[in-house]
Amino acid sequence: MKRNPIKQSLKDPEKRAKLYLGINLAMIMVTFLIVIGTILFILILVGIIH
Question: How far apart are alpha carbons 11 and 8 in whole angstroms?
Answer without folding.
Answer: 5
